[in-house]
Amino acid sequence: MTFARDGYAVLTRDAGVVRWADAAKLATQAIDFAQKRHDGTWFVGVDALPNGPDGSIAGMPLTGAWEALIKVPDRWHAGQLSVVYPGYPGRDPDESDAAHRFRRDRDAAHMDGLLPEGPHKRRHLREPHGFILGLPLSDVADSPLVVWPGSHHIMGAAFRAAFAGVAPADYGDCDVTEIYQSARREVFARCPRVEVPVKLGEATLLHRHLIHGVAPWGAGIAPRPIAYFRPHIPPCDWL
Fold this sequence. Notes:
Elements: H1 3-6, E1 8-11, H2 15-27, E2 42-43, E3 80-84, H3 97-105, E4 114-117, E5 122-125, E6 131-136, E7 140-147, H4 151-162, H5 177-190, E8 194-198, E9 203-207, E10 212-214, E11 224-229, H6 235-238
Antiparallel strand pairs: 1-9, 2-3, 3-11, 4-5, 6-9, 6-11, 7-8, 7-10
């Protein structure tokens, strides 16, 4: 497996990553977990982690093997704390049948950065990310990350065509709903679905164009927390 070919990498256990994850898990004791989605089975936790601009938590530095594969940002944003609970995905009262089925049967497969807008949830590129870095705060077996290896090639090609002749500053104004959905259907037809369980001290690195999601809950009883970083980059670099 190579990151360039498959669009994702699982980086082996690192003692420094374990120390960072332990500090992050300790810091979660101060977080209010009351606001959950999908009938109480997912805490989104955007910007919930109290890491510093260098990524450190309680003096534990954020460093790892991913630094050889990506451009490390000059400033890390506050990390997301994504916690999945037994029974995921539950259904919210306002969630449509189709949306719930897609989350349950297709792992809510998506590409980050495309936000649904308006009553018809039209997709626009509003958050161009450089990469996605996932750091489990415990061993993750239930509801693991799901990836479609190679999907970043299909999605990247689709968006290079979609934005041809468009100024990068205007990418977000383009409605890419149909382009995105068509390319994702091609991904489902051509790319395998792969579950990615990880252990404390490991890390996952995803290409920004990779289609990924979260598998439904299995038989476990303990919540599974993962810290995620998605540093923003200029739209001109996103393609």
